[in-house]
What does this fold into?
Amino acid sequence: MLAPHGLFPEPLWLLCALAVATIGALHRPFGGGTLALGALVALPGFARLGVVPVALVAALALVGAEIALRAIESRRELPLPERRTAARVAATTSVAVIGVVAAGAVDATALQPRALALGLVAGAWLAPHLLSEARARRARREPGRGMLAALQPLLLDLAGLTLGAIGLAVGRAAGWTLGALALAAFAALAAEAARNALAAAGNARRLEEAQRLRRAGVALAAGGSGVVAVAEQIRAECATLLAFSWFQLDLDLPGEERLSWGAAAGESLSPGAPAPPSVPPALPGIHRRSAWQIVERPIGDSRAFARVRLWCDPRRLDPRALELLNGLLPQMAASLREALADRAAKFDRLTGAASRRVLELRLEESFARARDEGGALALVLCDLDHFKRINDTHGHATGDAALKAVAAVLLAPSRGDDLCARYGGEEFVLLFEETDGGTALEIAERLRSRVELLGFTAPDGRAMELTMSVGVAAYPELPVRTPADLLHLADQALYTAKHLGRNLCLLDIGGGRLRTPRGEIVDVAPEATGATEAQAPVFFA
It folds into this structure.
């Protein structure tokens, strides 16, 4: 009979069995959700209490061990072998109870010899676990992969059944008092093993966290030099520390508008703030839908110059991950400062165009590549008309605003290899690789027209008309020897455009001739442009 003395026979023995099973279930070096060494109460319990009371003890012990492990984790910051939801705990408990009942039914047959009986009991105990694991793997479409690793937790159940058989033999030969003492000794050993395993797991976790922070710091330090590249690296390293669905990085720089980049997990960063949905996506199973937990951290020491914002699902957020994120903030700040310093050296702070130094280096490289590989290269030199008058009449704030407005027009159509640089004052240079003079003139004319139609409004609210003059020169259409010669010819074309009335684009086509976007030819002698013989480029030695 499965319960010969009722559901709650011998309350003292029942409580002792529950305590021993719970303590034994705490030791889970391989993970899983079985009774592990707590299985040692099974055979003595079948003989003393009955099958159904032992099944009840097994269920209570599994739930109690889970609660105890979670309490230990929260107090000592130690990890569970795996995180299990309430539904998962209920499922594993049900499988364990079925195994206990099956094993008890086999044990009740009193087969001989006892070694054969013990083997059949163990098989009945493990069969529900094996079937459950196989069914789960078939549902995940991975029936054979890692099956042996998944069965490792059951080795402790076998060890527990063996110890229980020893305790049962001691109880029958020398009395149940000694049998109970033997079981208690086994439980004490299991408790000590569990304590050591949890302590080792805690040390391993702290070491792993330190290594993750170190790897993240190294990755940030070795990331790209651009601000966007650093932002991408920050997002990647945040993803190694905690789970989030949306990411945003803000930069607050003195004298500049706030810069923001954002993206959903798995997507590329894009300028601007992200727009996540109001609540996190649904998860499998039964869950309470709650609002996002927005994790926001300032970046910077005394003054925060950046801010990282992460949209996290509170159901999946590990509190320890927040401490890891805090440990990464100093490296984030250092990487961003380095990227901003590099940006300040390479870009004009007012307009966002590249600096003159960047232009000079890029021009040398592009010209050498065009010369050696037979490619094309075009330079477009732009100058804002009457800029001095704007500064003198309306003030430097209006002049700065005008430069920023024109720079926005020049930067907007940039292709991957194009470069827009501030050359000095109100002058900008556009560098187009693999572009002939005619194409560069068409682009310059479109840009000139957009500036003319800009509809600029000064900071004081007054509407102003802006225009610019443009000079274009291209290689190898002009057989120059150096990039400085090419830049000089573009400058002379610009000078002529201003001399002819401004708000005009001219392309140097060689031989002292310039062409307008309409195809008109302008013949210009060197003295008409103001160039001296010493200034004119020498094409042939």
Summary: The radius of gyration is 39 Å.
